[in-house]
Automatic annotation (TrEMBL), chain A:
Listed pathway(s): Cofactor biosynthesis; ubiquinone biosynthesis
Membrane association type: Peripheral membrane protein
EC number: 2.1.1.201
Catalysed reactions listed for this entry: 2-methoxy-6-(all-trans-decaprenyl)benzene-1,4-diol + S-adenosyl-L-methionine = 5-methoxy-2-methyl-3-(all-trans-decaprenyl)benzene-1,4-diol + S-adenosyl-L-homocysteine + H(+)
PROSITE patterns reported in the protein's UniProt record: SAM_MT_UBIE, UBIE_1, UBIE_2
Residues holding S-adenosyl-L-methionine: 117, 171, 199-200
Identification of the protein by name: 2-methoxy-6-polyprenyl-1,4-benzoquinol methylase, mitochondrial
Organism annotation: Otolemur garnettii
Protein purpose: Methyltransferase required for the conversion of 2-decaprenyl-6-methoxy-1,4-benzoquinol (DDMQH2) to 2-decaprenyl-3-methyl-6-methoxy-1,4-benzoquinol (DMQH2).
Amino acid sequence: MAAPRSCGLWSYYGRGWSRAMRGCQLPGLPSSWPGGPLAARLLSQEKPATETHFGFETVSEEEKQGKVYQVFESVAKKYDLMNDAMSLGVHRVWKDLLLWKMNPLPGTQLLDVAGGTGDIAFRFLNYVQAQHQRKRKRQLKAQQNLSWEEIAKKYQNQEDSLGGSHVIVCDINKEMLKAGKQKAFAQGHKAGLTWVLGDAEELPFDDDKFDIYTIAFGIRNVTHIDRALQEAHRVLKPGGRFLCLEFSQVNNPLISRLYDLYSFQVIPVLGEVIAGDWKSYQYLVESIRRFPSQEEFKDMIEDGGFHKVAYESLTSGIVAIHSGFKL
Amino acid sequence: MSAAVATLLRRALGPLRRLPGGPRPAADVPRAGSHGAGLLYPGHIPTSPLQKALLAAGSAGMALYNPYRHDMVAVLGETTGHHTLKVLRDQMRRDPEGAQILQERPRISLSTLDLGKLQSLPEGSLGHEYLRFLHVNRVSPDTRAATRFVDDEELAYVIQRYREVHDMLHTLLGMPTNILGEIVVKWFEAVQTGLPMCILGALFGPIRLSAQSLQVLVSELIPWAVQNGRRAPCVLNLYYERRWDQPLGALREELGITTPPMHVRGMA
């Protein structure tokens, strides 16, 4: 049941690929290849028929995006329920920890990629709202010697409870965005929130736009992770922070065995019983095994142009938060 | 000899390969663990004993919690029925008509049924009444889930056949597809097949009934269903596809099925 660690294979597709793309000759490509830094984004007509992994399956790269889309289309409605069932609610702690690590100040522009059902975005909005309220309270306390007119003016200006913060949730899958919008409506999140349909490998945003870029449990589904990292680097402002919350490699052998047993025996069964979908959850646990380790991913992030890259493993390495800065 | 077997297999698997029109269900797209190796039939998902046990428990619970999850009832049947399916299969082998079914592997689905021909059959014939049953209850033979968790290709067919024959039983017994009708058919099937899923369904299905329906069920419908189930030969041994023009009354007499003790609302 244990998955073969495909480190070697991954290095080729991940790091080797991105290194080669920086103006070097790519073996096997037609000689009419334009080369140079402009080749950073392959034109779809000239894409070579390379293969990649889809869980433990091997598929062509063109196929992978479509197959991943169908997985998330199918799981969207029960996504949150399944997350709670599979992780016994622990995923909420992981996401809270991501926010605490992020520690956003009011006025932050956040881009949450593969944000789907909005877990990170809603936590962000609650966090900055609380921060903003605390700041306001402190300000009011400090100015207790003000006249009534000045205090009233302050209250009149107090329209933005978020202090100028804004989050854009970007996801490639319409069903996930739909589920997220419904959740936002149900929880009463209106201001400071935008929903955008977009591809992590080709973001529909200008350069240098965001203070923070997050991607939680999304990057392992991207076909070309290096491209997603490059896009992240592009859209961040100088000084901006990249944060990634993702499943990673467990460092403890005993826990690793238990985790494998749980992943392969229990999770697809949960998927079948709760969501009526065995295969999507089989894909989920397989795709986790295919994702690079903490160190390898750290190297990939550095290749994307980020500095001060660090990671923190949570729950013995079941998940890890990677962080990097654009300087 | 091998060419004949090959054509038989192709004919049997043909309808299995045909997918319904429109977007493919997402569950079909990513393939499970073995990816080709170890798959005994299309749609097969190999499972370990632990997974089967978890599936059986989970599907039983979910089916009770949400009776509209018919797929859970199907999963329960597949994960608990291994031994019983073997017994059923051996029984079918011993019967001449049953053995033919096992060999030819006919399937009842909208693509294999000749609806025009069935429509043209005289009123009172099996085919005509079956179509009427589908129409009145607004069901289709294509909503049956495909077998996934049975680890034997022939047994997978047996349970698939059982599912497809279920609608025939509704027609034969004159039971509608409301919950009362389904429970009556389950009792009949439990006595006939001995499948654990049928027995569990028959015992736990009535939990959700009102006291009045429960009373009618226990006092009249269940004894009738059990009696007929015991008396009738195994219903899986009937080659329904060859009996479309047989009058329903004659078929009922052949099987020893009497008229229900009372008119269960929904179907005449």
